[in-house]
């Protein structure tokens, strides 16, 4: 279930190639959902490199979820690759369990010409630090003809590396678990069938192996192996999602600003950011003007700090050692929910 949760977070990025605003240093966001039983706070703790730290917790003290989003960008001419550097941690106090993992690499293709499309690939290892169990999942690159596009597969193993179950599916669609012996037998049969088909076909020439064209959509969905159990399925997005940055219904609600919230939110909350507010209200020209003003204000503030001994003060997080894997992490200082918002920086 934790592995499925990790995959579901990646699924939210599907077809989300647009990003109108970059977070400003010190920008925050909070969300309290009593109906869903959690609260969340995040802060942009670094601008170069861009790092967003977050902390969420269950209102019934049933979970703690924290980590950082720290993409290391690489430009490859026709594509941008974002290698994730931040660690994700999930703690389940009821079971005295903690899990850590890192997201797969994300690549956006056709950044110069053509239709933008997103690919996720690489290995993701979800570790249960109490039991020593690990879920090793491979997000497969699409390959030359897109046959592996969106596919995810792997195994959950105990601390002695014995396979407990197999996990497979697509990060854009669903995830199943099945007995590892059945999974291995299915893969062997699939490989044999593919080799037979390949030997019966004429060799193709003039194939551009560096093609960045979007692979054709899958002709079929996930092929379900008999005996499999469905553990996650993506929720359908609203019909107008493509007009709103491929947001889910949940994501579309996140920028709502009720009048009663203005006296509660800190002045650094992104819902109070002028350019975002203008765009939300359909005032595109004003949003563009405000965006330029805020970016220039941020650059000026950075120059002024470099000329003095003043250092930027991160308010709600601090760097420290993750207690579970000892890696450097951003940890919440817990003071946010006391609503003590004095001496916050004027970033807007």
Automatic annotation (TrEMBL):
Residues 277-311 form a coiled coil. InterPro entries: OSBP_sf (IPR037239), Oxysterol-bd (IPR000648), Oxysterol-bd_CS (IPR018494). The keyword Coiled coil applies. The keyword Transport applies. Residues 188-220 are annotated as: Disordered. Keywords: Coiled coil, Lipid transport, Lipid-binding, Transport. Residues 188-201 have a biased composition (Basic and acidic residues). It holds the Pfam family Oxysterol_BP. It comes from the Eukaryota. Belongs to the OSBP family. This is Oxysterol-binding protein. The gene is OSBPL1A.
